[in-house]
Fold this protein.
Amino acid sequence: MKKVTIETPYITLGQFLQFTDVIQSGGMAKWFLAEYLVLVNGEEEDRRGRKLYPGDQVTLSEEDQYIVQAKN
């Protein structure tokens, strides 16, 4: 599982996808979420504005699993 460190209290799912280089621009987030299965804490998610907090787990595929963590 890969770790993604954020410096803010939360990050949106759209920002997360850009940050991890899954998509190139924020405009692609809606399309990506409509075309691919994305799980947040084990539940399907299709809202690009979904807030991700430290401790949240994001699964894009069996190989691409992430956990959000706060910068210490």
Summary: Strands lie at 2-6, 11-12, 39-40, 43-44, 51-52, 57-59, 65-70. The mean pLDDT is 93.
